[in-house]
UniProtKB/TrEMBL annotation:
UniProt domain AAA+ ATPase: residue ranges: 49-189
Chain residues that bind ATP: 57-64
Protein name: ATP-dependent zinc metalloprotease FtsH
Parent sequence residues shown: 186 to 458 of 667
Subunit structure of this chain's protein: Homohexamer.
Family: In the central section; belongs to the AAA ATPase family. In the C-terminal section; belongs to the peptidase M41 family.
Length: 273
């Protein structure tokens, strides 16, 4: 099978209402929606539209979802790729793949390019020499910088990247005119967890004893992805028991399973260290 370089969606159905919580982050990306929808409003006064924004935060907090929602709200095509796939799958051709991606996105301008796990490409250069250097990755990174610098004022492509390791990124990425805006996407607090449950419980058949605020209290430290996973686990557990609806105990049992899984993962990591 042919490896896919990037995913291209002409019509994105995700909108801001699918993204629960993240009020501050949504406010910040609203500006990107405006840039994509009415660039003249900004360029008429001589301003230059920013080319990149970096979403920074722990895994599963909705960075991909938020980037998609920007495309959905602006009604523009969404090109996405993951930095780790990129480095693993396209040995020797990373730079030319970046060129292709930007070319296609420019042809469909206005559009969004989303790069998940940008740290896989964008680690500081010259600091990876334990493995004998990594010219391939550096070439890919250099091409990315070249493409972002090369956008003319006639194209309106905004590059959104996501990472949970902003500390390891090459500072060149953050320079003016590149990813000069950083937007923090944090783990949800109690109220935000309620809002996320609200989204993910909606399609489910719930028993009368299920209370959103109680579930939010039982899930400190959960990301949005953990909550989505919990809701699905609870539904499967209730189905396995042949129930007609999902009850509070199904959620609590699933919380135990997920927390147990997280603890195991942490243990394995701490043994390695
Ligand atoms: P990673 O860093 O692991 O790529 P991410 O921050 O990009 O994670 P997403 O892929 O956007 O996280 O989140 C995974 C899923 O978790 C989403 O598709 C959604 O179902 C759920 N989710 C995460 N955050 C939220 C949120 N704020 N509101 C609603 N659903 C959320």
């Amino acid at each position: 099978s042919k490896a896919k370089l990037f995913d291209e969606k002409q019509k994105v159905k995700v909108s801001f209402k699918d993204v629960a919580g993240l009020v501050g982050a949504k406010e910040e990306v609203q500006e990107i929606v405006d840039f994509l929808k009415s660039p003249e409003k900004y360029t008429n006064l001589g301003g230059k539209i920013p080319k990149g924004a970096l979403l920074v935060g722990p895994p599963g907090t909705g960075k991909t979802l938020l980037a998609k929602a920007v495309a959905g709200e602006a009604g523009v095509p969404f090109f996405s790729l993951s930095g780790s796939d990129f480095v693993e799958m396209f040995v020797g051709v990373g730079a030319s793949r970046v060129r292709d991606l930007f070319k296609q996105a420019a042809q469909k301008s206005p559009s969004i390019i989303f790069i998940d796990e940008i740290d896989a490409i964008g680690r500081a250069r010259g600091k990876n020499n334990m493995t004998g250097g990594n010219d391939e990755r550096e070439n890919t990174l250099n091409q990315l910088l070249t493409e972002m610098d090369g956008f003319g004022t006639d194209v309106n492509v905004i590059v959104i990247a996501a990472t949970n390791r902003a500390d390891v990124l090459d500072k060149a990425l953050m320079r003016a005119g590149r990813f000069d805006r950083q937007i923090y996407v944090d783990l949800p607090d109690l109220n935000e967890r309620s809002a996320i449950f609200n989204v993910h419980l909606k399609p489910l058949k719930l028993g009368n004893d299920v209370k959103i605020d109680f579930l939010a209290q039982q899930t400190p430290g959960f990301s949005g992805a953990d909550i989505a996973n919990l809701c699905n686990e609870a539904a499967l557990m209730a189905a396995r028991k042949g129930k007609e609806s999902i009850e509070n105990e199904d959620f609590l049992d699933s919380v135990d399973r997920i927390v147990g899984g997280l603890e195991k993962k942490n243990k394995i990591i701490s043994v390695k260290e």
